[in-house]
Structure to design on (450 residues):
């Protein structure tokens, strides 16, 4: 095999404050978790450690890459594989958010009016969900059942059925654990055989909130988390702490608004851009959304808070209900009654699909085409995927990239990282700021019509 002549990293996840802080503190964090954090955040989850390791390796050429070559001038670069860990790796999560938004709009949502809802719960109940993440599925169901009852009441036809997509989010202010549901629901119900749709009149949110509260209490009582006495006590509160937010109606023609909203419901409300890591002090300063209020975290505490938001392996964070449930969608597809095309497939294992979707997604996220040659503007193609450890090593050694690190080894875990620092001149600056978790500017508000 001919070895490539040149190489560069299209992005450098290692250059962010986020990465530096995780890298400096994750080992001591893992060691000290039980003593320092298990009381506040619950038992240690070994899966968290895996997620962090994978994140630290994400985009590292030594774990495999694709060779991308210009067919006109022969310019070539290596593109590192990513970790695909949602929620913790900002860059991978961002890709997932874009992919999800696209898929939802093309394959799930029908061309009917929708609304965005947020269902949240009082502070006093949030911890139960932190200690027992299975309850999050229950919370999602409570929200769906409340909405379903309401929508069905509002529509006079027989056997009306709404459709909903519910994403669980756990980020609260300053990284606190605040489980809440982001919901995209049809603003009305489907009925009859031919997918007729009746739009619902405006809902009374206070009543909806009362039903939701009742269902959450019942769920927690059934699972032995709270007592009847506690429910009685909470029921006397003037402000129950439960909340239902309802956004404006989004019409089917507002496609951009829909896609932005679809992304928004799974986007974590953590922003890398609003975090500053002070290496000397060992602290993280995090700025609130308003851009004014700051909170100062010791680095370990910041890491503990961040890790509390990592879902368990295989934990579902998005669920589909009613007309949009997997069962309903499957039935319609079987009957040929679902006109939307399943055009976005999971890229795993299929290089052709991967190649295409990867280029399209990068373009969408960064607004540049990664397959345009930086030298001659010719078309670049992925010519191979290198996954064999020996071949990876050979190529990187040949290019002098095997030993490259972008910064000196961290102080705390210096023992595990003994590579000398070498030239990093092949590395390019990142394509864009690494603010993958940025809060959206609510650009979809512009398109919303009530
Ligand atoms: Zn070229
Ligand atoms: Zn990643």
């Amino acid at each position: 095999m001919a070895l490539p002549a040149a190489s560069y990293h299209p992005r450098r996840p290692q250059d962010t404050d986020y990465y530096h802080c995780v890298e400096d503190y994750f080992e001591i964090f893992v060691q000290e978790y039980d003593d320092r954090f298990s009381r506040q955040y619950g038992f240690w989850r070994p899966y968290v450690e895996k997620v962090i390791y994978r994140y630290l390796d994400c985009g590292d050429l030594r774990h495999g890459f694709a060779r991308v070559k210009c067919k006109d001038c022969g310019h070539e670069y290596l593109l590192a594989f990513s970790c695909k860990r949602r929620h913790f790796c900002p860059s991978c999560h961002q890709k997932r958010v874009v992919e999800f938004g696209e898929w939802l709009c093309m394959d799930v949502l029908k061309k009917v009016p929708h609304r965005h809802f947020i269902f949240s719960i009082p502070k006093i109940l949030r911890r139960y969900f932190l200690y027992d993440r299975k309850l999050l599925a229950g919370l999602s169901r409570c929200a769906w059942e409340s909405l379903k009852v309401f929508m069905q009441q509002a529509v006079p036809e027989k056997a009306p059925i709404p459709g909903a997509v519910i994403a669980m989010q756990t980020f609260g202010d300053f990284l606190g654990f605040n489980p809440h549901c982001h919901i995209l629901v049809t603003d009305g119900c489907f009925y009859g055989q031919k997918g007729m749709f009746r739009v619902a009149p405006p809902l009374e949110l206070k009543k909806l909130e009362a039903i939701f509260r009742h269902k959450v209490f019942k769920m927690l009582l059934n699972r032995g988390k709270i007592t009847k006495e506690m429910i009685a006590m909470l029921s006397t509160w003037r402000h129950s702490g439960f909340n239902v937010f309802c956004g404006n109606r989004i019409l089917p023609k507002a496609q951009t608004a829909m896609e932005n909203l679809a992304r928004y419901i799974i986007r974590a409300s953590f922003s890398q851009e609003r975090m500053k890591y002070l290496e000397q002090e060992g602290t993280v300063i995090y700025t609130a959304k308003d851009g004014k209020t700051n909170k100062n975290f010791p680095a370990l505490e910041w890491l503990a808070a961040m890790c509390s938001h990592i879902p368990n392996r295989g934990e579902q964070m998005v669920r589909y209900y009613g007309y949009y449930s997997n069962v309903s969608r499957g039935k319609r597809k079987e009957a040929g009654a679902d006109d939307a095309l399943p055009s976005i497939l999971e890229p795993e294992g299929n290089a052709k699909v991967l190649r295409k979707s990867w280029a399209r997604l990068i373009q969408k996220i960064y607004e540049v085409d990664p397959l345009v040659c930086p030298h001659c503007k010719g078309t670049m193609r992925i010519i191979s995927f290198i996954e064999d450890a020996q071949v990876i090593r050979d190529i990187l050694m040949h290019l002098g990239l095997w030993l490259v690190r972008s910064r000196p080894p961290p102080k705390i875990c210096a023992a595990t990282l003994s590579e000398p620092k070498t030239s990093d001149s092949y590395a390019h600056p990142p394509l864009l700021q690494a603010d993958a978790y940025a809060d959206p500017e609510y650009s979809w508000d512009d398109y919303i019509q009530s």
User: Anything to note?
Assistant: Residues 90-345 form one domain.
